[in-house]
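Worked example (supplementary).
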Amino acid sequence: MSRSPDSSTPAVETRGLRRSYPGPRGAPEVVALAGVDLRIERGEVFGLLGPNGAGKTTCIKILNTLLFPSGGEARVAGFDVVREANEVRRRIGLVSGGENSGYGILTVRECLWMFSQFYGVPSSVAWPRIDRLLEVTGLTPLARTRINRLSTGQRQKMNFARGFVSEPEVLFLDEPTLGMDVNAARMLREFVLSWVRERDGRTVLLTTHYMAEADQMCDRIAIVDRGRVLASDTPAALRRSVQGGQHVELEVREGGAAESGSIQAAVGVPVVWGAPHPERGTRTLKFRLPEGGVLGDALRALEEIGVAVQGISTRETSLEDAFIHIVGRALDDEGAE
Amino acid sequence: MAMTGTFARMRTAAWLGWQVESNWADPVIFFIYMIARPLAVSLTLAAMYAATRSTATEGAAFAGFYVANAFHAYVNTMVVGMGWAVFEEREEFETLKYVYVSPMGLVTYLAGRSFVRFVLGSISALLMLLVGWFALGVRWEWSGVQPVFLAITMVAGLGATLSAGFLLSGVAMVLTRSAMTVLEGTMLGLYLMCGVIFPVDLLPVWLRPLSYALPFTWWYECIRRFLLGRGSSAYMNTLSDAQLLGAMLAVCAAFAVLSWLVYRAMDRLARTLGRLDQTTMF
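After joint prediction of all chains, the assembly is encoded as:
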């Protein structure tokens, strides 16, 4: 008998969640999660953003009852993932991207129906839902094709659809668009957003290392690295958390007398040289204006030390800037582990 | 209501099991394979019998081992099939984790998958008995058959087979590359240890207690006693019908409890080690 959870409980809550793996051949243990605290409210699209090895997938596995934590506590829809795993399983769905999974001997439609039965969805409800999902994922023409005849991308779309056949309360999307073409990924992102908005109280926990995906889809984001949550807030708030104003990119003439040190002194903030443009004899100079700084003042200071500015562009702080600021390196940097 | 849901899910798993079992070939080839396999076992046994007949083996003894071989089809198909299902789901289809985290649960799923194996095992056993009856002279007196004891024997034996299937499924959850070796080794061990092909009395003395601890040893002996009217083990022949049946029920019950405990322990170990979505072979 399924128990009724208290609807005021968060969709996902972890306290001091830890997980470590034994190191190979006597090496020190590998810490995948080092005390993660999360609180995801019902109805949210929440993102876990971090480099490979940050602990995102380990966290998802624990929340899906596939893996025991080494310590701490995790609850999904109000139920403990260790002690009340069966209650958790009634309420969740899982989609893992970049996989080639599926029963090759079944057709796409059969496979989706089978999983709907595993979740106890009546066939009369399941079939229209499956047809709608096939339409959304563009698989309608392949509905009666055996899975072993599908390309990797088509299998991924089928697996994506599989996650929705049971209309779960909490849906875990682990890198769902990994390896998908741009159009398919965009279409599926839009579908997830409409799915959440049209259904009261449905929650999505998304892991990704695509900045744009997290920025576009998530109500809130937790930036994780080396098993720890470094920051958690709305994308806008994370961007605002980066001190400073506009990002400025100047195209300056090469061969000027001014050196980096004097340029830095002139604009008053660290500068970074970007790519040269030999065909125009220029090079890009990047810096972020200090809070309240005026671009005109910086340009005048540069002119005074003999820097010839050929072009100017500015942009607001991006999520990527916030990520670099918080984590200390870019998402795809070496050493991300 | 919950029971209805469980049966519906089990039925779906059985449907999948049938697709997996039957879809590797077209229906005609599958049908031929279904007949050819038990027929080959029957002929192999007949050849072995013919080779040894002039020396030691009597016709009645042959009938006892032939019948045990026929029912061993359940162990071969169900036990290996359930262990293999876990291995196949994780390594080949990469779907084990999705089945595991569904509300159906792996236990219901495996029970459903085992049903198809049960049907295939039944067909195999029936075909072997028919070949034995009509071609090899493996017959019994219908008046000597003890239907109630035999029915109880069959239920308990099939229950033990299902238990062994769960035990090996649990082990397959934890093992990775070595899972297939363990499955095949277990099947060979059971074939040699349980009085399927020769009497338990021929085992080394130190190995016999292990043989008597296995439910299949008692199951096959009960089938021989209650169907053919004659057992094969000197020790078991000293027991009355009721004692033999009681001993078999006790061993099967103990084995079922042990298998379930091992399955649960392996389930927990698999979640501790993170084995449920590990692929290693393909």
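Two points are worth noting when inspecting this output. The radius of gyration of chain A is 24 Å. The CA atoms of residues 259 and 307 of chain A lie 9 Å apart.
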